[in-house]
Amino acid sequence: MNKEFLDKNEWALILGGSSGLGLATAKKLAMHGLHIIIVHRNRKSELETIKKEFETITNSNVKLLSYNIDLLKKEKREETLEDIKKIIKNGKIKTLIHSVAKGNLKAMVDDDRPLKNDDFHLTIDAMGISLYDWTKSIFDFKMFATDARVISFTSEGNTKAWKNYAAVSAAKVTLEAITRSIAIEFAPYGIKANCIQPGAVDTQSLRMIPGYKKIIAHSIERNPFNRLTTPDDVANAVYLLCKDEAIWINGCIIPVNGGEHLS
User: Fold this and answer.
1) Distance (Å, rounded) from C-alpha 102 to C-alpha 54?
2) C-alpha to C-alpha distance for 194 and 183, rounded to whole angstroms
3) pLDDT reading at 210 higher than 80
4) Which H helix or E strand runs over 98?
5) What is the pTM of this model?
6) 42 pLDDT more than 90
7) Are 246 and 149 in contact (CB under 8 A)?
8) Closest listed residue to residue 221, CA positions, set 199, 236, 198
9) Confidence at residue 13, expressed as pLDDT on a 0 to 100 scale
10) Where are the alpha helices (DSSP H) in the chain?
């Protein structure tokens, strides 16, 4: 195993890293020597399971910091970054991973709970604008490495309309627009920003979408390899984007789906 990040005192800060794509990414980057910071929001009943998952990260002989907070609140974000800075001292954040899945999956036409204006605001703020908030705060705290990577996860819902997905779709479009702007405006400071667009991944977030079984079946059918994308597939792509050789990849929306997007 190539641990090219070991002994550099560099860290990956993962927003939403206690499950799914974020957790898989944390494990992968830890295997290659990056220290890990996970910011998540979970119930007490979930913490024992999460603790066991986190132990697999520290088994890679890296340091792990975790913060169970509301990452959308400005004061919590700043308190957390102040604490991180004290702990890592001269360490730097090599990569910021945005894997936030918090939003409303409601139909526009529904007699009981239709999608409302506030639902759009909550979802876009959580799954889109928070990328900028954390990027800017880390920058203001002077915590980014000289060659830093900002990576987030989008979906095919950025261009396709799925029932109940309108708010999340709007958030993903926002996320991509912010990523492109970060790629331009933070480039003079050594920061590159890209979005990964995975194929369908069987995660807790996918299973919250009404009709998710049809999405899974359709994805398998049109994928050239006739399988779903896995969290490890996505984590591998994140790792590649963090390597020195990816220094010239900036402002891209990158499909990671085995060619699923081709049909």
Assistant:
1) 21
2) 7
3) no
4) strand 92-98
5) 0.94
6) no
7) yes
8) 199
9) 98
10) 20-31, 47-58, 74-88, 117-124, 130-140, 166-185, 204-207, 212-222, 231-242
